């Protein structure tokens, strides 16, 4: 169709202008895509991106997992450290608490012991009664020696004043009293030693007083001169002491008045007279060297019996105060042990230096044995008292054990009488054997372990009592239940546990 032949409704399009119908058609059907000519390259990129993304996600997951594991590990370690710290702190706190509780218990124990050992008015009265009894015993024991010493001093004064005409025979009675003393331990050797020391001191004092006069430096000179000369002349301690003392007394008494009365030169004669009278009394009325230690040992056993009586009353009544009385009694007995040991040692020393007194050696040795056994019994009683205190606090009264205490007191009283009068301890051994038989666990009827501890200590007390009556330790164990009935080898005995040389018979004659 030519341009002239076109439809009148059609538009004339210029060159290059697209028909709207064709443009719409092109939008609906754009025709073949030029990019579709490279489909493989786009898929590979997508797959690579996806792969990279997956790799990143995996790496991220690994990182997250690793971090999470590290965090969990660190958290676990922190928790462990925290637990260790808590445990350590708790253990330290528990340890400190235990230490504090221990210290508190120790303080309470010390307070209880202080209260137990404290001497209140009642316990002071117990000690005062013990001291009074001891004082009266000392007075009775020294009554005769003091009376005889007074008579000797009076005789010495009469001789110096009436016979020799000395105006003031001061040293005659003094020398007599110093030489005799207040005990029965009057040995001629000892009297001569003291009298010689008195005479030497008076003589040196007179020489200083006559040549140098009286004064402080003369007195200071008299003591060393007299003491040194005494050490040259004799080895005795009393000789030297008396020489020094009397030299100072004479120089100190060197007044004008005494020289005017003529007392100076006569003092040496007075001292010799007093010493001579004392020596004469010693020869005419010889003392008993064993009487004093025998009396002291007997008193020790008697007071120990009193302590057991108090123990028996406290256990029978469950009375803690009575047990404290027994504790105070034992404290007083400790002092008696030391006094008895001093007295016994004095008698033993005198026998060692006096040939005429050596016949008393067996008795003095036996008294020393009694003293050792008595000291051991005191220590055993202290242990028994401590155990009794705990049992009474927990269990109350113990009448069975109290009966054993009374039996022990009776045996000790009997032994005290035997020592005092120096006769065979037959009754004491009989009571001790009966006590040992009662200490069998079955015989006592005791099942409580705490009371059984007391019974075990009482068995030791029974052994001590049997040894006091003269038996050796091995022989004493024969009478104790649940022990070997054979005496065994005597060589196995401990030193000091051998039998008595005087009362060592297994059976006393009736």
Structural write-up:
With 510 residues, this protein is mainly α. It contains 17 helices and no strands. Helix 3 (121-163) packs parallel to helix 11 and helix 5 (188-212) runs antiparallel to helix 9.
> What structural class do helix, strand and pairing data support?
mainly alpha
Largest sheet: none
Roughly what fraction of the amino acids lie in strands? under 5%
Rounded to the nearest angstrom, the distance between the terminal CA atoms is: 187 Å
Question: How do the SSEs run, as a string of H and E?
Answer: HHHHHHHHHHHHHHHHH
- Proportion of residues in helical segments: over 70%
Shape: elongated
Poorly predicted runs are: 1-11, 34-38, 484-493
Distinct helical segment count: 17
Q: What is the strand tally?
A: 0
Q: What's the rounded overall pLDDT mean?
A: 79
Overall radius of gyration: 55 Å
How are the SSEs ordered, and which strands pair?
Elements: H1 20-28, H2 39-117, H3 121-163, H4 171-180, H5 188-212, H6 216-233, H7 237-252, H8 256-260, H9 266-284, H10 291-317, H11 320-353, H12 361-395, H13 399-421, H14 426-438, H15 441-444, H16 449-468, H17 473-477
Helix pairs in contact: 3-4, 3-9, 3-10, 3-11, 4-5, 4-9, 5-6, 5-7, 5-9, 6-7, 10-11, 10-12, 10-13, 11-12, 12-16, 13-14, 13-16, 14-16
Q: Can you describe this structure in just a few lines?
A:
This protein is mainly α and 510 residues long.
Key traits:
mainly alpha, 17 helices, 510 residues, 75% helix
């Amino acid at each position: 169709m030519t341009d002239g032949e076109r439809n009148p409704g059609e538009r004339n399009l210029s060159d290059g202008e697209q028909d709207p119908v064709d443009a719409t058609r092109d939008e609906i059907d754009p025709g073949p895509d030029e990019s579709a000519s490279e489909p493989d390259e786009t898929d590979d990129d997508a797959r690579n991106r996806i792969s990279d993304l997956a790799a990143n996600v995996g790496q991220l997951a690994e990182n997250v997992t690793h971090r999470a594991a590290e965090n969990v590990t660190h958290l676990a370690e922190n928790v462990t450290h925290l637990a260790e710290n808590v445990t350590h702190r708790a253990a330290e706190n528990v340890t400190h608490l235990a230490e504090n509780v221990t210290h508190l218990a120790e303080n309470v124990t010390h307070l209880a012991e202080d209260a137990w050992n404290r001497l209140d008015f009642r316990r002071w009265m117990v000690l005062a009664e013990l001291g009074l009894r001891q004082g009266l015993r000392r007075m009775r024991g020294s009554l005769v020696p003091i009376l005889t010493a007074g008579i000797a001093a009076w005789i010495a004064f009469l001789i110096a004043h009436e016979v020799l005409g000395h105006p003031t025979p001061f040293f005659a009675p003094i020398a007599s009293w110093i030489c005799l003393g207040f005990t029965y331990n009057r040995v001629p050797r000892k009297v001569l030693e003291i009298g010689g020391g008195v005479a030497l001191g008076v003589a040196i004092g007179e020489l200083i007083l006559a040549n140098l006069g009286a004064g402080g430096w003369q007195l200071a000179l008299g003591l060393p001169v007299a003491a040194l000369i005494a050490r040259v002349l004799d080895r005795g301690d009393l000789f030297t002491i008396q020489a020094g003392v009397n030299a100072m007394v004479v120089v100190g008494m060197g007044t004008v008045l005494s020289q005017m009365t003529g007392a100076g030169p006569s003092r040496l004669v007075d001292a010799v007279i007093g010493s001579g009278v004392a020596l004469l009394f010693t020869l005419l009325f010889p003392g008993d060297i064993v009487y004093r230690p025998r009396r002291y040992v007997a008193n020790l056993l008697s007071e120990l019996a009193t302590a057991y009586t108090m123990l028996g009353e406290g256990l029978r009544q469950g009375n803690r105060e009575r047990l404290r009385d027994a504790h105070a009694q034992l404290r007083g007995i400790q002092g008696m042990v030391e006094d008895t040991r001093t007295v016994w040692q004095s008698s033993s020393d005198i026998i060692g230096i006096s040939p005429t007194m050596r016949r008393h050696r067996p008795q003095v040795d036996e008294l020393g044995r009694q003293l050792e056994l008595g000291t051991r019994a005191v220590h055993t009683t202290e242990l028994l008292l401590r155990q009794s205190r705990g049992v009474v606090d927990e269990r109350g009264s113990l009448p069975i054990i109290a009966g054993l205490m009374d039996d022990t007191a009776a045996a000790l009283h009997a032994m005290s009488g035997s020592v005092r009068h120096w006769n065979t301890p037959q009754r004491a051994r009989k009571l001790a054997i009966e006590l040992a038989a009662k200490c069998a666990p079955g015989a006592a009827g005791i099942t409580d372990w705490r009371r059984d501890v007391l019974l075990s200590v009482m068995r030791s007390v029974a052994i001590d009592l049997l040894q006091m009556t003269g038996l050796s330790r091995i022989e004493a164990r024969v009478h104790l239940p649940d022990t070997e009935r054979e005496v065994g080898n005597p060589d196995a005995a401990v030193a000091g546990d051998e039998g008595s040389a005087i009362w060592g018979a297994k059976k006393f004659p009736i």
